[in-house]
Structure formats: structure tokens, C-alpha cells
Amino acid sequence: MSMFVAAAAAVLVSMLLALIRAVKGPTVFDRILAANMFGTKTVLLIAVAGFLTGRPEWLDLAIVYALVNFAGT
Questions:
Q1: In the structure, how many helices (H) and strands (E) does the chain have?
Q2: Which of 8, 36, 37, 63 is spaced 20 to 30 A from 19 at the CA atom?
Q3: How far apart (Å, rounded) are the C-alpha atoms in residues 71 and 27?
Q4: What span, in angstroms and rounded, lies between the C-alpha atoms of 72 and 38?
Q5: What is the pLDDT of residues 37-56, one digit of tens each?
Q6: What's the number of CA atoms in the CB half-sphere (13 Å) around residue 58?
Q7: Are the C-beta atoms of residues 2 and 18 closer than 8 Å to each other?
Q8: Straight-line distance from the first to the last Cα atom of the chain, in angstroms, rounded to the nearest whole number
Q9: What is the pTM of this model?
């Protein structure tokens, strides 16, 4: 259980770093890549939260969000 909490915390930290890169990116390409990375980390966070709460059906939501993120990028 604590392993999933640590994983969720690590994903949140990496999401914060991606958000900083999206704001401060020197080029448009850096900003697009950071937005894509933020979406990917969101998928990971949904999956980890699903396991933390004991609701594996959240993986379906994570897959749908991954498809939307792919299409959006």
C-alpha cells in the first residue's frame, strides 16, 4: 500500500516538473512535449489511484484518457 502512495507522490512531482517545463519552455516544441508528458503522467496517476482505492475499473478510464491525449497531441 505504501508503495502505491510513494508511486503517486513521484508521479505528482514529475507532473509538477512537466508543468514547469510547459510554462518556461524556450520553444513551442518543448511546450508541446511537456503537455504530452503531463497527459501521460495523468494516465499513470489515474491508474495508481485506481489501485490505491481498490477500483481496478479506473484503468478503463486511464486508457480512454490516453487515447484522448494521443489524439490531442
A1: 3, 0
A2: 63
A3: 21
A4: 12
A5: 999 999 999 999 998 899 98
A6: 15
A7: no
A8: 33
A9: 0.84
Q: CA dist 51 to 25, 30, 35, 46, Å?
A: 33, 32, 25, 9
Report which of 52, 59, 45 is spatially closest to residue 15, judged by C-alpha positions: 45
Residue 41 grid cell: 503522467
Tell me the Cα Rg of the chain: 13
Distance between CA atoms of 14 and 37, rounded to whole angstroms?
Answer: 9
Joined grid coordinates for residue 15: 507532473
Distance set, CA 9 to CA 13, 16, 54, 59 (Å): 6, 11, 18, 19
Sign of CA dihedral 35, 39, 44, 50: positive
pLDDT at 40: 95
